[in-house]
Amino acid sequence: MSQRIAVLPGDGIGVEVTREAVALLELVAQRRGLDLDLWHLDYGADRFLRDGTTLPTQAFEEIRDTCAAILLGALGDPRVPSNDHARDILFGFRFGLDLYANIRPVRCLDDRLSPLKDHAAKAIDFTVFRENTEGVYVNVGGQVRRNTPDEIAINEDINTRKGVERIIRAAFEHARATGKKRVHMADKSNAMKHAHELWLRVFRLVSTEYPDITAKHLYVDALCLLMVRDPTLFDVIVTNNLFGDIVTDLGAALQGGLGMAGSANVHPGRRCAMFEPVHGSAPDIAGQDRANPFAAALTVGMMLTHLGHPDLEALIEDGVRECIRAHACTADVGGTLGTRAAAEALRARVTALLG
Ligand code: NAD
Ligand code: IPM
Ligand code: MN
């Protein structure tokens, strides 16, 4: 039976890297006889500016009910300074599908890409479990006395017991399933004594169910320090929505930059999940054939694992590693190729690896 995948290139370099990600997916599917049905959707800034559409309910429901995966490029366009369309679409899927685990691997594929003088690539290999449905992202709050000297702006930090518990449990389950021995939880419970005390308490409680795994608590500021000073300390890191967003850009820097960081948004046990690179639409380089297509390629790899083909994720990662080693890549990772040529180089290697 065919597996349906919704493809939303989105905005800016999202369009450029998704084009290449789809070509890679089609290549792998054709060579391995996977029956994939790609459903191309044009939701993004152009469409929003044309007719005000962000993510129609009917389309959302059809995706939810028929798709095994969503492949998203990136959303964000300087012509939409409010970012309304991006929030509607991105959070429409993350919240609407209850994709509570944003899984962001931080794996450096080549020594040349490590920015740390004392740590080679093999030292940088951990996974961040970012809570993806709560926190300040819920946008509970408001503004009063707007545009006056007495203005007040509030964004509440929403943390539910269920929400905190399920992401922490997902992190431990992942550690156990992948043979990892350590889970770190990062919060700011020293300052935020209500919301983050909940995280600390639930983390301690859940960790008792996993005696085989070492559970350690860190404040998020210290986490940032240690990620740079000694990334070998980490296997799995679990944290809230906002901190997860921030530490995974730092994590991307450890991998060679945003052009190397893939991600998955999942509700463990459910069918429909969303896959997107960690990077955004990069308006500064959009339309110039400069975007690194490898983050999107690694994201396709994560999607293939979700679709039941972990061997193909490993194969794509090997292909990317070979490209980086041969400098067959874009300038951000030390090559001279454009987006299209780097993606073509990857497809050539993946073709060879497929045998
Ligand atoms: P960004 O990730 O788009 O870019 C940050 C920097 O990294 C830029 O200098 C950019 O050129 C570089 N970069 C990013 N991806 C790259 C790639 N594949 N290859 C080479 N260089 C790359 O972040 P930003 O500039 O803060 O945000 C731009 C827009 O993207 C904003 O509207 C933001 O809200 C949006 N955004 C969307 C997503 C998403 O849809 N998932 C994620 C992050 C940011
Ligand atoms: C990400 C992005 C988004 C986030 C933005 C575009 C709202 O930065 O996916 O990392 O903060 O989740
Ligand atoms: Mn981000």
List the helices and strands and how they pair.
Blueprint (H helix, E strand, L loop, with lengths): L2 E8 L2 H20 L3 E5 L4 H7 L5 H10 E8 L9 H13 L4 E7 L17 E7 L9 E4 L7 E4 L5 H17 L4 E6 L7 H13 L6 E6 H10 L6 E4 L1 H15 L8 E3 L6 E3 L18 H13 L3 H16 L13 H16 L1
Parallel strand pairs: 1-2, 1-3, 3-12, 5-10, 8-9, 8-10
Antiparallel strand pairs: 4-5, 4-11, 6-7, 11-12
Plain-language structure description:
With 355 residues, this protein is α/β, with parallel strands linked by helices. The protein has 2 domains: 198 residues, Isopropylmalate Dehydrogenase (3-Layer(aba) Sandwich); 130 residues, Isopropylmalate Dehydrogenase. 42% of the residues lie in helices and 18% in strands. The protein has a 10-stranded mixed β-sheet, with helices on both faces. The chain has a two-stranded antiparallel sheet with strand order 6-7. Helix 1 packs parallel to helix 11 and helix 7 runs parallel beside helix 8. 46% of the residues are buried. It binds nicotinamide-adenine-dinucleotide, 3-isopropylmalic acid and manganese (II) ion. Manganese (II) ion binds next to helix 8.
